[in-house]
């Protein structure tokens, strides 16, 4: 059907394009440069960081002999992610080697792709500059960290952005519905909590529902997209939940709920204050501007803020797992909604919008460059300190490196020149606490995960009786007060070899 040249919506859009600033045509180039910058810097940081606790579970599971072994290990509650992610990391390692960068490559690519998708989604709803604002919001969140981590959160974010893009940008055909469903299917295949990506779209359908109206094809496809992988992977979900859910870390509470949004956007309050100041200083106060009503895309974007609330209920009822990174899927929707809000109010104030973009983009780049200069700043366990000391400890006759903290243990074991001599000392009440872990927070959750992993990867563990047998050949790394007291009572003299940066204790 032909559209009349007097069609108001057509004229408005055409007029908007004719009067658009020159940089409108360059928005794709700028977005591409930003995505390339974060991809390149994430890969460099990834190559300079050592693996940390969670990542080493990814590595050890991904390098198991085959997909069937991976599936079996996850069925024994070795880790909490879907098997397809480990297979992706395995494939990356097969193609690019067994390095830190190769394991983190899928995350870096996914983050860059998610940035681009968010930009394009907002651009289609507003214009190029406000699309860039949506992109610039994302690096001001906690997202960049997950671009150089070998876990599935960046992919989870990317598929959330892809689902939003599919819903808003490619019409209402059967193909577009299938695309939306596939995006959610792949999201759940990367992280179980991706089922909550459906929440804002379902809420919007509920808000827009009228008597006699059928659910949209996209919503039906989305329901199938989250249900199919959930059913397929239910045995793995059930196994991990049965063993660890009640004793999981970060159980839901009101204090955790309050902390979620500041954790998603750590600098949000400061940046919003600076944006308001800039709007007051640079805005045109004498212009009579009609603010457009909130459109579907912006409304759905703001409804992404409901995901942590629904997640809180889900955690209370079933999973007991409530942590900020499980809600990384919130970021694309909020970024798009924020850019749409600015566009509705400031689309005639190009200078104001440009200033907001430069503020957000500059903030994100400065933070990323800071990590780029000092990649070790995102390492927190002291593993490098141990590796610097290992040779001197062995030269002093200490063959066994006995760790009380489980996080530093698995990192040290992976990077040690003598991994077979790195020992995890299990607490004396480890077995007793196993019977209580299902009804209360498990104080030894990390140790229990390592014991599960030791069925598939050779990790060495000791009880106190083993430590007594080899006491004079052991260096205790960050020993707990209970361990030192038990050894004193057993008749050993405790000698502090070093107190900083790591506490090293010898037994005589």
Structure, explained:
With 508 residues, this protein is mostly helical. The protein has two domains: 357 residues, no CATH class; 125 residues, no CATH class. It is built from 25 helices and six strands. A six-stranded mixed β-sheet has the order 3-2-1-4-6-5. Strand 1, helix 21 and strand 2 form a beta-alpha-beta unit. Helix 2 runs parallel beside helix 7, helix 3 packs across helix 5 and helix 6 packs antiparallel against helix 7.
How would you summarize the topology of this molecule?
Elements lengths: L7 H11 L8 H22 L4 H10 L4 H9 L7 H14 L3 H26 L2 H10 L5 H4 L6 H17 L4 H17 L8 H9 L9 H16 L1 H11 L9 H11 L3 H15 L13 H8 L3 H13 L10 H17 L3 H24 L9 H13 L4 E4 L2 H10 L6 E4 L4 H5 L10 H9 L6 E3 L1 H6 L4 E4 L3 H9 L4 E5 L5 E4 L1
Parallel strand pairs: 1-2, 1-4, 2-3
Antiparallel strand pairs: 4-6, 5-6
Helix pairs in contact: 2-6, 2-7, 2-19, 3-5, 5-6, 6-7, 6-9, 6-18, 7-18, 7-19, 9-10, 9-18, 10-12, 11-16, 15-19, 16-18, 20-21
Tally of contiguous helical segments: 25
Computed Rg? 26 Å
Major sheet attributes: 6 strands, mixed
Going by helix content, strand content and strand pairing, the class is mainly alpha
CA(first)-CA(last) distance: 91 Å
Label the overall shape: globular
How many domains? The number is 2
Strand content: under 5%
Strand order of the largest sheet: 3-2-1-4-6-5
Tell me, rounded to a whole number, the average pLDDT.
Answer: 89
Number of E-type strands:
6
**Uncertain stretches of 5 or more adjacent residues:** 1-22
Helix percentage: 55-70%
